[in-house]
Task: structure prediction
Amino acid sequence: MKRPLAQWGVMALTVICVLFAAISSIKVMGQLRSTQEKLDKAQLAILSAQKEIDEIQKSREEEAKAARQKALDEKKVQEAKEAAEGASQEREVQEADSDDAQTEEENSEGEEPSNSFESPSNGIMVGIDPGHQGSWVDMSALEPNAPGSSEMKARCTTGTTGNYTHLEEYQLNLDVSMKLRDILESRGYQVVMTREDNDANISNAERAQKVAEAGADIYVRIHANSSDDTSVSGALTMSPSSTNPYVANLYEESYRLSEVILDYYCQATGIGNRGVTLTDSMTGINWSTIPVTIVEMGFMSNQGDDTKMADSQFQQTMAEGIANGIDAYFAQ
Ligand SMILES: [Zn+2]
Result:
């Protein structure tokens, strides 16, 4: 009886030990798991801290870079300021005696930017006629080619076309005329236009009357030429002759206007100067009551002239040349 009892005791002890061990190992495993979780968390925290550190470092680098750039910019601004001050001092020395320069400076300081290119009126009005009109406008009806004349001519003609660019003369005339208008207005002139689009239905006689009635001092008609000989190039202007039956009284001033505009136009553009042509057959001249000129800006039948005149930048130079001639006409 004693042995089985002892055996039971050993067995029970063993079972207790095993149970204890199992419980312990479960406990340890649980602890291990929680430790692992803690480790993971700590690692995550380290990673996020590292990320924060990186970000801080990066932003610091950027700040330093910006500061360096700012310092560099400030240095540049300072240098530019110094250069500008030097330049303005030089200018002041050069213009010390010029009242005009001072007035200009005062104007540019006192006025709003939108007005900075507008000059005060110089009291002169220029009539500009962009020759012809769109080909779709019927101008075939007749009108006398001078006041009281029995000779009848079409109200207007269509004009020529660029041999190479295929640009229509009425469009070229309008484009240069609008640029001329803007330049003249910026120089203090008043401008009256005979037309500002290609749909206008206004005859040559009506154009001459329109600008004179508006109070224009001179009448500048803008055209381009054409010839069967494509080698012919250059610009010319037209004036009435001293024996014109209708406007001989305008001959001297018209000739002077024609000559000075042509000279300045050719100087600005480099286009050849073909001189002033006298004509008494043009309705738009014969109906004029103020000094008048026709500017034939170049030959649209010539490749060189045609190509140059179709360029918008060159048109600006053409308009500036004509405006310079108008300035010179009134300065004489
Ligand atoms: Zn024409």
Residues 131-132, 159, 169, 223 surround zinc ion (CB under 6 Å). The two ends are 153 Å apart (CA to CA). The chain is about 55% helix and 15% strand.
